Amino acid sequence: MNALNRILKGGLNTKLVRVFILQVLAISIATILGVYAAATVVERVLVQEALNGEAEHFWSNYAEDRSFPLPNTNNLRGYMARQSDYSQVPVWLRDEPVGFHRVVEAPGSEPVVHISDRGADRLYLVFDEVQVSALAFYFGIAPLTGVLLLIYILTWVGYVMSRRAVSKIVLLGDRVRNYDFDTGQFEKFCPKEFSDTADSEVVTLVNAFNQFIDRLESYIQRERNFTRNASHELRTPLAVIRANLDLMARFDDPEKRQRIVERMQRTVRDMEALLETLLILARESESKLSWSSVVLNDLLTDTLEQVERAIQPSDEIETSIRADGLLEVDAPERVLAIVFTNLLRNALTYTDAGRVEVLIDANGVVVKDTGCGMSESDLERMFEPFYRGHDRSNEGYGLGLAIVMRLCSRFGWTVQADSELGVGTEIRVEFPRARFQPFVQQQEPRELSTSE
Question: Which of 8, 256, 333, 370 satisfies CB 3.0 to 4.6 Å to 251 for a cystine?
């Protein structure tokens, strides 16, 4: 367990080295134990069985022929004590008991001895295993040693290849760990720097980190733009309030002071609406929005009335809602209200005279106005946060359409815009999963409300 804990510590290179060291040690120990076991088998099993066979062969022949010669070969010598006469037995063998064991003959010589009795006779078989050990070395230990060396070589090759394979990952890990985000320079990683085309895993990691860098850079850029533009846009209404407070201190006329108060009240309401919308958008990913089935006909009627009361448009502007049927959408009602409040506020704000129409059909909702319209360049950037078109005479923060686009994208709704400078603007919001019930009893679209 301690060895495993040590392996788990350190970097990938360190772990790899430790794993291969433990692997080599385990293989070495296993090989040594195998050699020792093989030697033990040779000595304890094969030699003993061979000597047992030699003894049985001699005793069977000796029983028939008392003159049968004792074994006397290059590796095997035989001695016999006849009728307890040990004169023909070497001194170093005389006191050895019956059995199979190793005896010290002389310094550096320890032959294996097999001793057995038949009546008053005792047979000593002395096996000199020097040559057998040499054969065992050449035909046993030497091959095992060769196998061990081969395993070492293969292990080293595996280590080198593994190190080469993970070296790029280690390099990539170091680069990611030392990546300095504080400088603001979001430099991407080059796949060729870390791997060739064959290392698909490393290339995948590099691409994933590059995608993360792109997202992080985009997020930070959005935050920087938001902070810079929000501080600029919120500074404007504060300046208006400060200027009107200075005017109030100069004028004693109640009528003039009342107009100043109303102007500040409108500014404060606009700031409250802006801040509330920003808070809703900031918390939308965390809060649990309440979904319901919303009839857009009713929602748009109420929303148009609220926007008209807040903006108090000119008497020269005519507003209406025309519908081909009932359009029902499953969505958070508050989100729908924000979307259409911003669209209607924009339409009424940028229309000095003419008409603002809301059309409801099977595909969605269209908000049309006959206001100042937009140029092609303004139309391309109309959904950018804090962007305001050529007509900056009206109060606003340039967030309305950006909020509309963000909410529609989040809920899978489609926004399309068309505008012509000096003619007007038309914005369509489509709801792919909406339910539409047409008015079948009327040939013409029904006008839900009209105000002049």
Answer: 256
264 and 303 fall within a common domain: no
Which ranges constitute the DSSP H helices of 95-199? Answer: 130-136, 142-177, 191-194
Report how far residue 20's alpha carbon sits from residue 11's, in angstroms, rounded to the nearest whole number.
14
- The token pair at 328 is 């029902």
| Amino acid letter, 347 | A
Number of Cβ within 10 Å of residue 268's Cβ equals 13
Residue type, 226: F
Question: With the C-alpha atoms ordered 390, 394, 395, 397, is the resulting torsion angle positive or negative?
Answer: negative
Range of the domain at 92: 2-133
User: Quick one: pLDDT at residue 94?
Assistant: 86
| Shared-domain flag, residues 357 and 434 | yes
Is 0.70 topped by the overall pTM?
Answer: no
H/E segment holding residue 333: helix 333-349
What average pLDDT does range 267-292 have in this prediction?
63
Q: What is the pLDDT of residues 91-110, one digit of tens each?
A: 888 888 998 888 888 887 77
Confidence of residue 443 (pLDDT cuts 50, 70, 90): very low
C-alpha dihedral sign at 139, 142, 148, 153? negative
User: What's the CA gap between 75 and 114, in Å, rounded?
Assistant: 13
Q: What is the mean pLDDT of residues 403-413?
A: 86
